[in-house]
Amino acid sequence: MMKNIKDSYQHSYGLCLRLALVGVLIGLIVGAVDTIFGRVLLLIGDVRSAHLPYLLPFLALAGLVIVALYQRFGKDTQKGMGLIFEVAHGDSEVIPLRLLPLVVVSTWLTHLFGGSAGREGVAVQLGATISHRFRHCLSFPNSSQVLVVTGMAAGFAGLFQTPLAGLFFALEVVTLGQLNLYALVPSLFAVYTASRFSHFLGLEKFSHVLPLTQTITVEVFLKCLLLGLLFGLTGNVFVSLQSFFKKQAIDYLKNPYWRIALIGGVLSLALFFAHFGRYAGLGTNLIEASFSTHQIYSYDFLLKLLFTTLTLAVGFQGGEVTPLFAIGASLGVILAPVFGLPIELVAAAGYISVFASATNTLLAPILIGGEVFGFQNLPFFAITVIISYMLNRRQSIYGLQKAVAVDAE
């Protein structure tokens, strides 16, 4: 492990300067692309909400278009995030540029017609695809992996405008148990540039600074442990269910067109009758309700979990992170009175802890807690996230995430 740490700092000062400049350039480009993608996605969400009865019935048709696009133009890009991880690990060398329009258009279609999906996977793929174009400009060992991680960080930070979380998400998500410090310098410059530039261009950021500071007593500490267990279990269920649905769908409906058409039709009906599209789209409506006086039902988190895992398992496009935020926050609202803790505090802890469990990340969720909800409750967030993270049985929404073997001597 010490050798890995040493190796990660072998860049010369001159190379570090060039990497910093490239990081700024990547941040500017990715921030602009994130803004276009994100603002159109928000507009699509508004259109869907206003015309849901006319759009939701065509979810299956949108799915057929998505499958046709990938079959016709992007067979080598169908792995999506898997391809990004392969390049980050050095197992593949090329991220085709056509991944950009394919993943963006297919995600817009998924959301326009009511699919329950997120957006971070798209932003990370956009960032990695763009940054990978710079690999010919710099010649040094592992340059391809460095640039991919830099783009992943910029994509996450530009979309959510959480630069520290974006930085550590990219550094830790590729390999479980190891920070990819070789990409630290360009990623640092890229995340702050992308975050500030997307904000300057008008992309909205969700933040809700909590109006309280929770003291960590022995009683509160024990409650944090229990909350961490429950949130961690929820993240595990999300990953397991998504994998189960995907396997069953492929086993019983081998043709991708039939698969997305039939299950897409079922999803349309189910989403319509489940509170008239309450669980369609990103889940930001549930997040907003969790931090306001709006109604949260005891089953909101479960239905959002079911709809999202099924939507993504059958071939619709998008990410998982925003739905994970919604699942965790709405579950936190239900658990808060049981534990005798402030509702907004537990909702915030759920927001980040379910994400931590499902993605096998530790530092990024804690920093999201600080950047979105305020750093005054970082100890509370850290305890719940640590337990959620430790509960994970080395499974993740990112199937090609690798784990570092640890020698127990």
TrEMBL record:
It holds the Pfam family Voltage_CLC. It is found in: Membrane. It comes from the Bacteria. Its main location: membrane. The keyword Transferase does not apply. Keywords: Membrane, Transmembrane, Transmembrane helix. The chain crosses the membrane at residues 12-32, 52-70, 146-169, 181-203, 224-245, 257-276, 297-316, 322-341, 374-392. InterPro entries: Cl-channel_core, ClC, ClC-type_chloride_channel. This is Voltage-gated chloride channel protein. It comes from Streptococcus cuniculi. The lineage of its organism: Bacteria, Bacillati, Bacillota, Bacilli, Lactobacillales.
